[in-house]
């Protein structure tokens, strides 16, 4: 299965934005909608209710931030408790974002019911038939909109634009400055007060009682305004236009204020009653009357003029058009009549935003359609007379071909320089795509942008990863559309290409990743259910795999079933995904597998035999170092939680074991063996204790009965997979127990261990017992059945592991025989007999591996030891590996050397006051506990300073600095005893100045040990690099040093230095010799610096 970054939200950078309660509230609304899905109309109604719910939610959040500024007509039946729990980010940016979100949901709740209708149901047809029967009512807006679906949608968009504008500034606030300049004070009177007063004054001065323009001579030539412009001589509304004269400046301001208010009322879709009330307060009722012919208000059912004839309305529109294009004293006066007549130019002239421009065009288109409808209702040649005599704008013709007019209009407006930046704002671009009915194209491009952010650097109209609020909206829009297509006859899906589907689903994939980062994994199945297969399972896998707790996993599976997700296919796909990922990872072996060796490169002797390498399986941590290995094991744990998926546990488990073993991921193999035990599966799922039942095909046939049809495995295949899974687990279990017994041999020379033989001998006895039990399946035809059937992978594993494992087993028996009882040496001889039996399969394995000689030498050494064995020893050893012995404090590491230095007097003037470790399972803590020394665990990743697997260099550096500073603060805390000297005993973390500088200011010294001479081989792998130089003859010696710690790695002033001559030994032997000297040097260096500190006190 091929995956790319578009389906791997784990790869996406996390956002720092905190998820507000709206995230869960939106999910709850969606869940309520999907619960108990009903076919047909009910399901459609449930889905169409979602935008209304989301719209109300956003409105409530805005009201919380900005009380008292509610949108016109909003239902604010708020849940007070819900609002109290919402986080409040009272910033202007958040307010603006919420306003845009409200507008988006408002637009969707208006247009989606029209686009996803019941396929023009019969009730519409019946109503249209009634309209044809009763032409006397044909002038009603209801009949017009019932007859024209395009008009219905345009009205919906127009009402959305009106409602959005209604949330703007208060109209009285907008006109306040103009009203103040009108200088009317508290006077409530009709008309132009200052102009009327000037006319009266003129008549009084000249003694003329008639109209001024009838005065003899040139009486009006010096009739001027206070600004020295010709002033009107009459006070009717058309005087300024007719006479070409001005009003007094104060009345000019009054006019502009009134017309601005009237325009805003029309722009906001106010009803006739609201406009009349506003005008009446200003004693200008005539203006509301002039606008009352045919309004298109924001709220349905408030239209006027339903009792006027069609011809009257047609004529009224044309009179308004004349005023918009030829009359008026101000832009807003012309814009008022431009709105009423459907003119575009006059309305655009006062437009301030993209919304205003769109309003101008949609208003014009809708009024042109309405005009055509009314003309069809006019009698005889009346329509022709009206259209020929009185011109008007035909916006439909002006916009060209009807098909695609919305798309062209939106693109044209976006190209206008005055609103180009606004049109590129992501929410506005989303709204534009809804208006233009290009939402699917927008979603596709948004998905591509999320998948490849670099392609959107010059595309600001799409939401960026950090804009989580906008992407939440986008995700819910996509989910809503996908579900609507599923319950209505209208399907965009059939018209989508595979690439478009993939791109759009990336939006949900991103949102699922966002939910995971916000610890809201329980919501992910709800959103994943709308994705196509297999994308659905891929998104679930990528986002739920990190869940470690079994109960949480079970809950998530229940939620997936509730969302109608096939959990069987989900867990199957998840396992396949992560197997593919590990198989394609850089750590996967591409050619021949590595050579498996766990025995030390040394000559065995009859007393101790040959040592097994310590910790060859790796650290037994809570999580594997390789995250992909960890996820693969977890995917198998998920498989176990689905009842019918147990056959896949065996088949995928075999593949995982083979990969881990072939690629030497031994820690992962051990983790798999312990997490998914074959014996536990038999006992817990089938109630069987006997592992030999795995060899019965009848047993597996019985278990397969009753499983669903999507389980296609045959009894024979299940039996084979189960046997292979069991046998590979036996190998890993054997290696684990060999590591444990080998650990005893590694530290056998430790005097401290020997003095506590009474404690460790029972442990060793138990470890050898477990080793013997786990080795038995490997000694007789291990994996041969499948190998003979042609399984080359298992043949490779057998040849790779079996010889070395058996040799290690011989060494373990040898060691136990020399330390415990000679019976173990006798068992070595029995093992030799088993291998050399006539029908034995092991001899051929050693022959093929060309290791027969090694085997014979191992048995010879054991035979010699048996001959020399003095007699019986009793007692013996459990636990599993060197790490478990270290838990008891049996070790020869640097920390132990320092503890011993204090106890034996080498550090006579020193006291260890505390231990800090950055490894959770560090065995040093056990020795600290035994010595009564306080210790604490403080880790860069576990304590939240750096995300696991973080690759960003800047974030890594910042995390390390913060960690170093916090560590210094802990050490220097006034609540603790402050040290005078810090010794880095195996501390594998390079300190930055954030740690070193405060420690230095506090007068505390820091020393470290480095396995190289000053100036040679700074940093990691110093011994390995020195060994290469020694082998090449460029050096004859290496060395070690203890030095002070500075911010340059291994460049601090040396305290003690010791050269070590090379004796021609191998790398491992050289390491052992160097480490032995290191333990002595660190104690001496610590003693030297401690003495200097003590001496310095006296001075």
TrEMBL record:
Keywords: Membrane, mRNA transport, Nuclear pore complex, Nucleus, Protein transport, Translocation, Transport. Pfam families: Formyl_trans_N (PF00551), Nup84_Nup100 (PF04121). Residues 213-231 have a biased composition (Polar residues). One of its GO terms (molecular function) is structural constituent of nuclear pore. Its main location: nucleus. One of its GO terms (biological process) is post-transcriptional tethering of RNA polymerase II gene DNA at nuclear periphery. Residues 896-1086 form the Formyl transferase N-terminal domain. Residues 75-85 have a biased composition (Acidic residues). GO terms for cellular component: nuclear membrane; nuclear pore outer ring. It is found in: Nucleus, Nuclear pore complex; Nucleus membrane. Part of the nuclear pore complex (NPC). Belongs to the nucleoporin Nup84/Nup107 family. Functions as a component of the nuclear pore complex (NPC). This is Nuclear pore complex protein.
């Amino acid at each position: 299965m091929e995956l790319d970054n578009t389906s791997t939200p784990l790869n996406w950078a996390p956002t720092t934005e905190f998820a507000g309660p709206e995230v869960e509230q939106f999910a709850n609304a969606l869940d309520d909608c999907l619960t108990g899905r009903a076919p047909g109309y009910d399901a459609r109604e449930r889905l169409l209710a979602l935008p209304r719910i989301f719209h109300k939610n956003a409105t409530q959040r805005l009201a919380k931030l900005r009380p008292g500024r509610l949108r016109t007509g909003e239902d604010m039946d708020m849940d007070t408790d819900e609002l109290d729990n919402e986080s409040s980010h009272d910033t202007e940016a958040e307010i603006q974002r919420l306003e845009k979100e409200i507008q988006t949901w408002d637009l969707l709740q208006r247009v989606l019911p029209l686009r996803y209708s019941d396929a023009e149901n019969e009730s519409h047809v019946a109503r249209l038939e009634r309209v044809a029967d009763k032409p006397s009512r044909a002038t009603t807006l209801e009949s017009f909109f019932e007859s024209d679906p395009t008009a219905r949608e345009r009205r919906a968009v127009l009402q959305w634009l009106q409602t959005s504008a209604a949330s703007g500034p208060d109209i009285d606030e907008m006109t306040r400055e103009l009203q103040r300049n009108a200088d009317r004070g508290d006077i409530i009177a009709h008309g132009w007060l200052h102009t009327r007063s000037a006319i009266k004054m003129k008549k009084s001065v000249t003694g003329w009682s008639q109209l001024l323009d009838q005065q003899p001579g040139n009486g009006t030539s010096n009739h001027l305004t206070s600004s020295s412009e010709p002033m009107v001589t009459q006070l009717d509304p058309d005087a300024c236009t007719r006479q070409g004269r001005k009003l007094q400046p104060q009345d000019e301001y009054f006019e502009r204020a009134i017309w601005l208010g009237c325009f805003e009322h029309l722009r906001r879709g106010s009803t006739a009653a609201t406009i009349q009330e506003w005008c009446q307060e200003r004693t200008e009722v005539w203006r509301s009357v002039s606008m009352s012919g045919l309004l298109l208000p924001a709220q349905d059912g408030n239209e006027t003029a339903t009792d006027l004839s069609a011809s009257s309305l047609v004529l009224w529109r044309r009179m308004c058009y004349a005023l918009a294009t030829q009359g008026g004293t101000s832009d807003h006066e012309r814009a008022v009549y431009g709105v009423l007549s459907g003119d575009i130019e006059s309305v655009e002239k006062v437009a301030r935003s993209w919304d205003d421009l769109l309003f101008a065009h949609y208003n014009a288109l809708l009024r042109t359609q309405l005009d055509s409808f009314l003309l069809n209702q006019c009698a005889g040649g009346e329509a022709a007379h009206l259209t020929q005599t009185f011109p008007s704008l035909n916006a439909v013709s002006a916009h060209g071909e009807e098909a695609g007019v919305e798309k062209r209009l939106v693109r044209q407006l976006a190209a206008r320089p005055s609103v180009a930046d606004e049109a590129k704002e992501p929410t506005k671009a989303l709204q534009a795509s809804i208006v233009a009915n290009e939402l699917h194209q927008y979603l596709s491009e948004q998905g591509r942008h999320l998948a490849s952010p670099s392609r959107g650097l010059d595309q600001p109209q799409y939401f960026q990863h950090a804009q989580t609020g906008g992407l939440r909206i986008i995700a819910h829009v996509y989910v809503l559309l996908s579900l609507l297509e599923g319950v209505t006859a209208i399907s965009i899906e059939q018209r989508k290409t595979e690439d478009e589907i993939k791109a759009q689903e990336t939006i949900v994939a991103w949102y699922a990743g966002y939910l995971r980062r916000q610890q809201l994994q329980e919501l992910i199945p709800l959103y994943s259910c709308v994705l196509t297969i297999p994308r659905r399972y891929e998104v679930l896998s990528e986002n739920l795999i990190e869940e470690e707790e079994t109960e949480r996993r079970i809950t998530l599976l229940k939620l997936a079933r509730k969302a109608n997700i096939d959990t069987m296919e989900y867990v199957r796909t998840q396992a396949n995904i992560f197997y593919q990922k590990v198989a394609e990872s850089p750590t996967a072996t591409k050619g021949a597998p590595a050579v498996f060796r766990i025995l030390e490169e040394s000559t065995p002797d009859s007393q101790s035999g040959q040592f097994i390498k310590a910790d060859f399986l790796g650290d037994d941590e809570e999580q594997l170092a390789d995250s992909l290995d960890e996820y693969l094991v977890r995917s198998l744990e998920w498989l176990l939680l689905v009842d019918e998926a147990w056959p896949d546990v065996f088949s995928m488990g075999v593949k995982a074991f083979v990969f881990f073993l072939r690629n030497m991921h031994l820690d992962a193999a051990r983790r798999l063996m312990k997490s998914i035990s074959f014996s536990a599966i038999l006992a817990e799922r089938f109630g069987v204790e006997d592992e030999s039942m795995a060899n019965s095909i009848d047993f597996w046939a019985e278990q397969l009965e009753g499983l669903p049809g999507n389980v296609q495995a045959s009894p024979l295949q299940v039996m084979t997979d189960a046997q292979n899974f069991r046998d590979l687990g036996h190998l890993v279990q054997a290696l684990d127990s060999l590591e444990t017994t080998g650990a005893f041999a590694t530290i056998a020379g430790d005097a401290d261990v020997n003095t506590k033989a009474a404690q460790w001998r029972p442990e060793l006895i138990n470890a050898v017992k477990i080793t013997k039990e786990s080795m038995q399946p490997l000694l007789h035809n291990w994996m041969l059945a499948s190998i003979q059937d042609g399984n080359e992978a298992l043949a490779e594993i057998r040849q790779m592991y079996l010889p070395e494992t058996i040799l290690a087993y011989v060494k373990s028996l040898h060691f136990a025989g020399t330390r415990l009882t000679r019976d173990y040496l006798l068992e070595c001889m029995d093992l030799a007999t088993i291998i050399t039996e006539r029908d034995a399969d092991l001899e051929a394995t050693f022959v093929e591996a060309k290791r027969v000689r090694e085997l014979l030498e191992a048995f010879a050494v054991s035979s010699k030891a048996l001959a020399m064995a003095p007699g019986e020893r009793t007692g013996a050893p459990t636990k599993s590996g060197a790490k478990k012995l270290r838990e008891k404090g049996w070790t020869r590491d640097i920390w132990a050397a320092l503890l011993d230095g204090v106890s034996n007097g080498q550090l006579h003037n020193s006291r260890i006051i505390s231990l800090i470790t950055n490894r959770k399972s560090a065995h040093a803590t056990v020795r600290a506990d035994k010595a009564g020394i306080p210790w604490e665990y403080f880790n860069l990743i576990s304590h939240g300073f750096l995300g696991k697997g973080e690759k960003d260099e800047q974030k890594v550096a910042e995390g390390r600095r913060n960690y170093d500073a916090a560590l210094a603060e802990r050490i220097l805390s006034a609540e603790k005893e402050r040290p005078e000297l810090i010794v880095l005993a195996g501390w594998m973390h390079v300190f930055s100045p954030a740690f070193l500088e405060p420690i230095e200011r506090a007068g505390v010294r820091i020393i470290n040990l480095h396995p190289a001479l000053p100036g040679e081989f700074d940093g990691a792998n110093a011994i390995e690099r020195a060994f290469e130089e020694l082998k090449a003859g460029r050096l004859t010696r290496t060395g070690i040093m203890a030095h002070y710690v500075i911010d340059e790695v291994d460049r601090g002033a040396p305290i003690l230095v010791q050269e070590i001559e090379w004796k021609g030994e191998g790398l491992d032997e050289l390491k052992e010799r160097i480490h032995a000297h290191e333990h002595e040097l660190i104690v001496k260096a610590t003693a030297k610096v401690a003495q200097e500190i003590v001496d310095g006190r006296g001075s």
